[in-house]
Amino acid sequence: MASDCIFCRIAAGELPADVIDRCEDWMIFSDIAPAAPTHLLAIPTRHVSGVAAAADDNPAQIADLVGALTLHARRAGIEEDGYRLVINEGRDGAQTVPHLHIHLLAGRRMDWPPG
Question: Which helix (H) or strand (E) holds 54?
Answer without folding.
Answer: helix 51-57
